[in-house]
Write a structure and sequence with these properties.
single chain, alpha/beta, Rossmann fold, 2 domains, 6-stranded mixed beta sheet, 4-stranded antiparallel beta sheet, 10 helices, 10 strands, globular
Amino acid sequence: MSTPTDRPQPMLAVEGLVVKYGARTAVDGVGFAIGRGEIVGLLGPNGAGKTTTLSVIEGLRAPHAGTVTVDGVDALRHPIDARARMGVQLQSSGFQPELSIEQLLRLYAGLYGVRMSHREALDALNDTGLERESGKRLKNLSGGQQQRFSLLIASIHNPLLLLLDEPTSGLDPQSRRSLWQRIENSRRGGGSILLTTHSMEEAQAVCDRIVIIDHGKLVATGSPAELIATHRDDPRVLALAHGEPTLEDVFIALTGSDLRD
């Protein structure tokens, strides 16, 4: 018989998180955990508190209350140790514009303590279909190529936890499926992943479990199939569904149909 101490330690544990902007509470008591080798989608309408929650996990913002642990490390008390265990997807604007993507790759590898030769850099770029672009600047790549490069940078040091903020936003179907496969490959390599997305198709295809927040509060959590099964007979879901209920029907039923800025 197992005891609480026998249970595997989660890769990420967020408990009682509270973040305020003046009089407004952006995150209000949110808590969830990610197991080792698990892909979790953090979903919510615009302004729900997703980005603020990610910012706290990344160590970019201090919460007013709550705790964050990464691989057992208190991320609020020991942010450097926690960040060493993470990989964070950077937007293209976060990279040095004057450098080629090979130079960027070797620079960020060095910042993560990974030695990388010219040949090793080309091999890594080749694995993501970017070897022929090695001399180009990031701004001269297509959107799909930029996203693949950002994911490569985030995972170059084989982090225990990957944080991805809308990793496939604006991509065509081929590029999106390619990135889904790379995310799955990272999980198979032993990593855990927390991603945000507005695509219910993506959440259902990629994520083992979903965490839905709205107005800063936790609304629901479970696998995509569990969420659909739990809420399929909800009158709000039935009013939205055209045929079999979908994850999108459940999401809108739980968070409302009003447009958000």
